[in-house]
Structures are given as structure tokens and as C-alpha cells.
Amino acid sequence: DVANHQIRNLKPLLIEDTVTYEKHYHLDRIVKGRAKVDVDAAQRWWADVVRDVHLRHATTTKDLTRARLTTFTRAVISSLCPNNRRKELPDTFYLDSDRLRCLRLEIEDLVHYEMCFTMLNKVRKELGHTATISNASRIRVRSSLAAIQGEFIGHGYQAWMYNSESVSLEIYRQAHSIAGQSPVLDHRTFQYWNERLRSIFQFSFASHATAVESDLLPQILSCLDKHYNSSPAELYSSLVATPSPSSTPSLIPSPPTTDTFSFSNNTPQTRLGELSKRISHIVLLHWRIWAPITYVEDDAKPTASHPSPPSTAASSPHAASSLPPAPLRPKSEHEHDVHVVKVMKTGEPPESGSGYESSMSEETRLP
């Protein structure tokens, strides 16, 4: 009871302190040479991402910080979606590896469901049925396919190829049911549609994956924009699915798993909405923690906001001595993080009058 009480009361505080704690934890290990992260490799990855994204997409915002986050998000989504241009993420994501693996497999299953519906439409077309499929029929088809996959859900391409005979037979049967016809299946017909399905899996995978990515990316960008200024606690309450109450809550939550019932009863749009929230949560926290350490650490430099223009009066020594110094531009949160990172890496004391002296002693101390 005491442990459960402490967990319930400390959990909000621990969540709220996630970014600050992890940022200084990782940086402390980097400075001491005990990091699990190759910083140089992460920086090269980021440089490649910036170059590739700028070649493919035009920047639509003047906010440099948000533009960088959008660039970063595109790279993460590209790594999660199973297409031909997937690039592996750097090892700065090592703490999220299980969650990212589950997300990849869920997205891959979504792609295979879409390919199954492509197959369903091909069968319907040959039967002369061109009417729109009802939502009830779609749910029924997804439920039957999920039942066939069973425990193979979440195991990727090989699982779908392994079950292709049963899946193609069920698609053929469901197409006839939707068209109001009785299926007549001989060995030749069965073999023909199984080969068609396997061909779709093999040769249409990339195009279907690109379509899923195109549907997923706008939802994630919209979610990021909505929660851009949210605190870690607000992100958790809004973007992380809350499990049903339990009398014995787990101290360390297990990584999300692929649920067959959820796959069969949620529409693709509902599933994409859930995925966009989970991905947005990982992206926002990772960017806040690692951006000032590895990705954009040298981009923000403190400067004066309004330097005094030269004048004849200022050329006089007496006039110059009477002028007050130009006010410094207040440091943004990102510049503050960058400065803290620089001080921890170099060991140099904060600049006098920079406003960092009082905060450094607390911010750089690990629990």
C-alpha cells in the first residue's frame, strides 16, 4: 500500500521532470565517456536528414525551430514506414527501441490490411460488384483476417506470406458474400487468387506503404502543432493511452503490444489517429532532450537584439562613456538549453552577466 501510494503521488512529478532529467543524464554520461550514444554518428545522421528533406520538401514556415522539428518528424516517420527509402535511426533512440519496433510492425500490418482490401476489390470487380463496401462489411472482413493471423499479428511480412493461402481464401469468400453470390472454389481458382495476393504483397508493398505514410504524416504534424508547447505531463495525459485502473499498478509500464481485437475493430482512420498520438509523444520528448545535445547544438548563439548604430556623438569618448550598454536579447528556452549543454561539455564557467550562473549549479546536478 505504501509503495502504491508513493507511485501514484510521485508519478506526475517524475513525468514532468522527464526532459530535464534525461537531458542532463545523457549529457553527463557523454562528458564522462560512458555514453551508449555515438554523438558524431547522430550528428551525421541529422546532417543527412536536413539535406534530404530540403531536397524533397519546401519549407513552409518561417519559424526555424518548428521547421527543424518538422524535418526531424519526417525522418522518424520515414524510418517507421516500410518503404524503399527507410533509413535507420541513430542510437540516440536506444531507450525507445521497443516502442519504435512495435510501431513499425503495427504500420506494416496496416499496409498489409490495405493490400488485402485491394485484393478484395479485384475479386469484387471480376464478380461485377462495384458498389461501395459498407463499414459493417469492412469490419467483418478485418475481423476475419485478424482471426486468421491470430498470434502472427505484429510479426510483419513473413507472417502474411505464411498465411497467404488462408487469407486469400477468406478474401475470396468475403467478396462473394458482399456481392451476394455463392463462392465456387476449385483448386485452380484457389491457386490463382493465392498467387495474385502474394504478388500484391511482393510488388505493391512499397506503393501501399507510401500511401499509408502520406495519410499518417499530416495527422502527426497536426498533433505536434497542437501539443508543441505542452508540458511533459500534458503530453502524457493527452497522447499516452491510459490503461484501465488496477489494484496493483506496475512501476515500469510494459511497451505497447499489437492487439488483434483492436486491429479488427478499429477503422484505418481510427488506427492512424492512435498511431499519430504515440509517435508524436516519442518525437516531441526525443527532440526536446536530444536536439540541444546532438542535432542543433551550435545553431543558437546569444547576440544583441538591437546593436546601437554608429553616430558622430558616439565617437566622442565622453559621449561613449555616458551611453548605457546595449540590452541583451532575452535567451529563448532553446538557447538556454544550448548554453547549458556547451558549459557541461567544455567545463567553461557561464559568462558573467549572462543570467546562467544561478541556474547552472542546479540544472547540471544529476539526482
UniProtKB/TrEMBL annotation:
Biased amino acid composition, Basic and acidic residues: 330-340
A Pfam match: Tcp11
UniProt-annotated stretches for the region Disordered: 246-265, 300-367
Lineage: Eukaryota, Fungi, Dikarya, Ascomycota, Pezizomycotina
InterPro entries in the record: Tcp11
Family: Belongs to the TCP11 family.
A single GO BP: protein kinase A signaling
Signal sequence interval, chain numbering: none
Protein name per the record: Uncharacterized protein
Chain intervals with Low complexity compositional bias: 302-323, 347-361
